[in-house]
Write a structure and sequence with these properties.
Elements lengths: L1 H14 L10 H12 L2 H9 L3 H16 L3 H14 L4 H14 L6 H17 L2 H10 L5 H6 L9 H21 L1 E2 L3 E2 L5 H19 L4 H16 L14 H5 L1 H17 L10 H42 L9 E3 L3 H6 L4 E3 L8 H7 L1 H10 L6 E4 L6 H6 L5 E7 L13 E6 L14 H7 L3 E7 L3 H6 L3 E3 L9 E8 L11 E7 L4 E7 L5 E9 L4 E7 L2 E8 L5 E9 L8 E8 L11 E9 L13 E3 L5 E11 L8 E10 L7 E9 L9 E5 L1 H4 L9 E10 L7 E11 L8 E3 L2 E2 L3 E9 L5
Parallel strand pairs: 3-4, 3-5, 10-16
Antiparallel strand pairs: 1-2, 5-7, 6-7, 8-18, 9-12, 10-11, 12-17, 13-16, 13-18, 14-15, 14-17, 19-20, 19-26, 20-21, 21-24, 22-23, 22-25, 25-28, 27-28
Helix pairs in contact: 1-2, 1-4, 1-14, 2-14, 2-15, 3-15, 4-5, 4-6, 5-6, 5-7, 6-7, 6-12, 11-12, 11-14, 17-18
Length: 757
């Protein structure tokens, strides 16, 4: 009904041309109304079941009523348009403005007040939805706006969002002017927009001369404002221009005005009368061709719904439990699953569930964190694995075992499904904890006897908000600003080894982060930070604006690593302490700081203090790394086992400025120390997870074991120890007894004897 009503309104609007003083042009208006009725996207919208067709009808009815100076009808239609879709306030407000300036106002103040209140009603209706949103959710913003608006995408800088809006606006008008989309081909007559814009510009010029707003001005303003509003949406070009259709619809009556003006001009010329119907005929024929192509698109999309989405929903209904207290089904598209599964749903996008929409914009890490902490946490998923980074959740094991698969062959112009493959998964939350725990062995030693006073769960938006968390980028990294992984700890110290594996969401930062933790004044603070070190990144830590430490994110990809920052009690003066961590990222397109969790421990921190004696050796340009003791123990081959050399080193911390230092222990033939080592081990201190930049005051004892080749010839071999920067591969300079060429410290020798045969 709305579809046919819209076509009728196109006829009525097109019949009343602002370019002609006399009534007429019904034939041209009828031709363009027919063209509207056979244009593929409008037919598709009417058959799709969405609100597009009713909204089109209300938008056109509002315009028609304003064109005819019918205030009551315009107010009623405009109010309904605003309630139908938020952007309805644009045509409604413009129509009310046109009525306000085109008609004279009553002379008495009561009459003016009544008329002003009447014309303000559609604009006032724009506050109904936000008020309902606020009452139901505590936020005036609709979940759809949070999930779809480019301006609401806080994962990107405002400058990038505005650039995307401008790009969308330009692309939109580029496609409108030629009637063709790169995504699905011709969607309307190529003649439509040029003809309509010609009439609208001519009508605007005429309105300027007459100093009176006419229908052309109203139509042009409405089209420009609607396209500008739609350009702010991620979904601006989705579903065959669903959101652009109200603006496109107004081009049809404007084209009828152009056709009449052109036709009247040709009718006045001898021999040209037959050509007066050329424009409407060409628009009508080319529009009819789009109906044929969109009929194929409709068939393709209905087939996808029939062959994939409906069977999946019915499988869920027939195979998953239906008890009242069973967990929800996680979905990306709620439509078919909502209609057919008869199961409660968890909408990961957040369109139909309170809360997830802001997390959806932040990427897979935030999506996971919100879902993991939600009281509606799904027990199963019926979902696309390749939308908005959901592949991260699949790879992290959150989707769990596949229960049923629903592949389908997608048509070239599919909008009914996001991927050819959907599946039902049994959710796996076994590595998800209500509260994450620090687990690195060196961390557990450091915080022993201290109390956990606060924690910041990075990428969990509620936790971030509670701690005033902010983040920034020096340059936007590729991909998502949050990620989720399931990793083992690289050097776990928990007695229960199964607890050393955790799933967590975190951020991808090229700039840094800042947050506030609750603290107890006058106590030492140990700030523990969990990172996923895909690459090595230097960090600077500030507390209440004062630089307190330099740290490094070590490059240990595929593992959780922690670093600890000590803040002396004298610097903790209040119950709230502001922490700022800045990253020094050389290549933002490849490197990033990846924080996942922060724990704040407090108490009396009493590290073991090394003696003040002369160290065995000093590494680094400024002597940052001090080696207090070093011994080696050689175990010869025996009982079929190869030999080994164990090097025990006692280091002294802290080592500010030492960076992401990596230890190497080389074994050389004593006569060829300038050649390649015959055996070696390369690792970071602290079980591979504790570079010198992250050492706390005190001593650190490490053992590095070099396994000897089974075919190592007998002879005398020397052992050298050194350190290099992980980011550059450059060895640290070394001074001390035994320091040799190429920045190596020779610490002893072993004699490999010939084994008995």
């Amino acid at each position: 009904m709305a579809f046919f009503g819209s076509a009728w309104l196109v006829y009525l609007i097109g019949r009343a041309s602002p370019l002609a003083e006399e009534p007429g042009g019904a034939g041209y208006a009828l031709a363009l109304a027919l063209a509207y009725g056979v244009t593929g996207p409008f037919v598709w919208a009417a058959l799709s079941g969405m609100e597009t067709a009713p909204f089109l009808f209300l938008t056109l009815l509002t315009f028609y009523a304003a064109q005819q100076d019918r205030s009551s009808l315009a107010v009623a239609a405009g109010t309904l348009a605003v309630l139908a879709r938020p952007e309805g306030v644009i045509p409604a407000a413009l129509a009310m403005l046109a009525l306000g300036v085109r008609r004279s106002w009553p002379g008495d103040w009561r009459g003016r007040l009544r008329r002003g209140a009447l014309l303000a009603l559609p604009v006032a209706a724009a506050f109904v939805q936000p008020a309902l949103n606020w009452a139901a959710t505590g936020s005036a913003s609709a979940s759809g706006m949070q999930a779809k608006s480019l301006l609401a995408n806080t994962a990107a800088p405002l400058s990038e969002r505005l650039a995307d809006v401008a790009s969308f606006f330009g692309r939109m008008w580029g496609e409108l002017l030629v009637g063709r989309s790169a995504d699905f081909g011709t969607f309307t007559s190529p003649l439509l927009a040029p003809a309509a814009l010609g009439a609208l510009l001519a009508g605007t010029w005429l309105a300027w001369r007459q100093r009176r707003a006419n229908a052309a001005v109203l139509a042009l303003a409405t089209i420009l404002a609607l396209t500008a509003a739609v350009a702010t949406l991620d979904t601006a070009f989705w579903q065959f221009k669903r959101y652009q259709l109200p603006a496109i619809a107004l081009l049809y009556p404007a084209a009828a005005w152009a056709a009449r003006g052109l036709g009247d001009g040709l009718a006045a010329r001898a021999g040209w009368r037959a050509w007066r119907w050329a424009l409407p005929a060409l628009v009508l024929v080319s529009s009819a061709l789009t109906a044929l192509s969109f009929a194929r698109y409709y068939d393709e999309n209905v087939a996808v719904v029939r062959d994939q989405q409906v069977p999946m929903a019915r499988w869920v209904r027939d195979n998953l439990p239906e008890e009242e207290n069973d967990p929800r089904i996680g979905v990306h598209d709620v439509g078919m699953m909502g209609y057919f599964s008869e199961r409660p749903l968890y909408d990961v996008v957040g369109l139909t569930l309170l809360g997830p929409a802001p997390s959806w914009r932040q990427g897979p890490g935030a999506i996971y964190e919100h879902m993991a902490h939600s009281r509606y946490r799904p027990g199963a998923f019926a979902i696309y694995p390749d939308v908005q980074g959901l592949r991260y959740l699949l790879d992290a094991g959150v989707f769990g075992a596949v229960l049923a698969e629903f592949p389908v062959e997608l048509g070239e112009h599919n909008v009914a499904a996001a991927a050819e493959y959907q599946a039902v998964y049994a959710a796996d939350w076994t590595t998800t904890r209500p509260e994450e725990i620090a687990a690195q062995a060196s961390t557990l030693d450091a915080v022993q006897g201290l109390a956990l006073v606060d924690a910041v769960d990075v990428a969990h938006l509620s936790s971030e908000a509670e701690h005033g968390y902010t983040w920034w980028q020096d340059e936007s990294p590729p991909g998502f600003v949050t990620e989720v992984y399931t990793h083992w700890y690289h050097a776990c110290g928990l007695p229960d080894q199964s607890a050393c594996r955790a799933t967590d969401g975190g951020r991808v930062l090229t700039g840094g982060e800042a947050f506030t933790v609750h603290t107890r004044p006058g106590e030492d603070l140990l700030l523990v930070t969990r990172v996923h070190g895909r690459t090595s990144v230097p960090l600077a830590v500030f507390v209440n604006g004062i630089r307190v430490a330099e740290r490094a994110q070590p490059a240990v990809p595929g593992r959780w690593v922690e670093f600890v920052t000590w803040v002396p009690a004298a610097q903790i003066a209040g119950t709230r302490t502001r922490v700022r961590i800045e990253a020094d990222v050389d290549a933002p397109r490849a490197d990033a700081y990846l924080p996942y969790y922060h724990w704040a421990y407090q108490g009396a921190f009493s590290p073991d203090v090394a003696s003040d004696g002369q160290p065995v050796a000093v590494f680094g340009d400024d002597g940052a790394v001090r080696l207090r003791e070093v011994t080696l123990h050689y175990t010869p081959p025996a009982d079929g086992a190869g030999g080994q050399v164990a090097v025990r080193a006692v280091w002294q911390g802290p080592a500010p400025g030492a960076g992401d230092g990596v230890i190497f222990v080389h074994l050389y033939n004593s006569e060829r120390v300038d050649t390649e080592p015959v055996a070696q081990v390369v690792t970071r201190p602290g079980g591979g997870a504790l570079p010198p930049a992250n050492w706390l005051p005190g001593t650190l004892t490490d053992t590095y074991t070099v396994m000897l080749p089974e075919d190592l010839p007998p002879g005398t071999y020397v052992v050298a120890l050194g350190m290099f920067e992980a980011r550059t591969g450059v060895r640290y300079p070394v001074t001390g007894a035994g320091a040799g060429p190429d920045r190596r410290l020779f610490i002893g020798e072993i004699v490999v004897e010939e084994t008995a045969q």
